[in-house]
């Protein structure tokens, strides 16, 4: 049943999953539930809900923005690997960088990456793990304005999230913020800082997860100009102001 939900849901998103990819998602679920008994990685523990609320939710990114072949993509605050790992499974041509500040989650991601790579055969996902806070990464030459696409899912409210993520996006690139249905007021308050960071006018794409009545909002922000050097500020200053 879980397999059918995943296959049909992906198909509704315009994605045809291969048998090898289904095997990877199955291994992902097994490892996630095993580690979740020791660490609090997710509140969602039913395999069917994992398939919809984690895997299919992650794959919605592919329906709203064109991911060029070989694009360099950062997943900020990836947690248990969402949306980065599902994207790597479906699009192994992408170069995925998963940014996570919590060490225990990074340990899970290392085990998960090894598991995924062992099942990948000829199409090997490119997954790099970075143990750093997003605002610290964006102050380094290795990460600042380097990425074609930056994605973040349920990490912080938009004012903070924009300052964490937009400095990582190269000019001409795109930031995707994965949010719930009630985003309008939060986004209105974030527009001044989005502009100051070099972002364009945000576009909201609202959708429903396949086979459910669960609403999501994907906020798409194009990077129009370079982020001024004073951004991002340190985390405490961002939250204070």
Features of this protein?
241 residues, alpha/beta, Rossmann fold, seven-stranded mixed β-sheet, globular
Q: List SSEs in N-to-C order.
A: HHHEHEHEHEHEHEEH
- CATH homologous superfamily caption: Vaccinia Virus protein VP39
CATH fold description = Rossmann fold
Tally of DSSP β-strands:
7
- Sum up the overall morphology in one term: globular
Largest sheet: 7 strands, mixed
Topology, please?
Elements: H1 2-12, H2 19-36, H3 47-59, E1 72-76, H4 84-90, E2 95-100, H5 103-119, E3 126-131, H6 134-137, E4 147-153, H7 158-165, E5 169-179, H8 184-196, E6 203-208, E7 215-222, H9 235-240
Parallel strand pairs: 1-2, 1-4, 2-3, 4-5
Antiparallel strand pairs: 5-7, 6-7
Helix pairs in contact: 1-3, 2-5, 3-4, 7-8
Describe the structure.
This protein has 241 residues and is an alpha/beta fold. It has a single domain, classed as Rossmann fold (3-Layer(aba) Sandwich). It contains nine helices and seven strands, in the order H-H-H-E-H-E-H-E-H-E-H-E-H-E-E-H. The protein has a seven-stranded mixed beta sheet with strand order 3-2-1-4-5-7-6, with helices on both faces. Helix 1 runs parallel beside helix 3 (47-59), helix 3 (47-59) crosses helix 4 and helix 7 (158-165) packs parallel to helix 8. It is globular and about 50 Å long.
